[in-house]
Amino acid sequence: MSSQERSAPRRRNPRGQGQVLKAQLVDAAAKLLSTLDQPETLTLRQVAREVGVAPASIYSHFPDLSALIQHVLRLRYEELARLMDQAAQSAPDPLVDLVARCAAYVRWGVGQPGHYRTLFGGRMPDDLVPGSAHGAGAELLEAVVTSLAAAAEGERKQPSAEQQWQAGLMLWTALHGLVSLYNDHGNIPWPPLDDLIADLLSLHTARPADEIAALLPQCGDAPGLAPDSI
């Protein structure tokens, strides 16, 4: 094959355009990850093919595939944490704050099943695990722990910090189980999603489910997801 017949190398981006390619790589990786059962099965070649560049081009922006995946996961964690914060920003009391955060979590997970699976369907990098000292996921879990403890204040003997953490972790476990089962087993005749959220939070707050359900309309919706359409 002559040199003229060989594929020409990809032309270097104009100054300032490198960030465009980086954003395209991140978007492509996020799209592909949302279709995979395990993030570990993603390859650099798949990402490069999706964008239309040579695999070597990725190394200008990320040292390896793991760094790219961690970047995508961190962005998704930040997106979810931001949505939960926004849902609770005008909450008039701790219970509404808790309900708003948990409803936002569930609605996002059900409305974005591929992205939810990307975050929680495989092994998470250590620096993203909720509970790690500086993990991106720590903010998400700590907010639930704080609002759960505040909602329970005055209702019973104030628990220790360790007990508060354990209660928050158990609530997150229940929320994750709800989202995962709802997404993966659509053939089950599920009740309306808001009813499930209310019943779950009733169990973890010792408040009547009807009281929780009455707060849900105040909590807003995840983008593109109306609870009465589920």
TrEMBL record:
The keyword Transcription applies. Residues 43-62 bind DNA. The keyword Metal-binding does not apply. One of its GO terms (molecular function) is DNA-binding transcription factor activity. Residues 19-80 form the HTH tetR-type domain. InterPro entries: Homeodomain-like_sf, HTH-type_TetR-like_transc_reg, HTH_TetR, MT1864/Rv1816-like_C, Tet_transcr_reg_TetR-rel_C_sf. Keywords: DNA-binding, Transcription, Transcription regulation. This is Transcriptional regulator. It comes from Streptomyces sparsogenes DSM 40356.
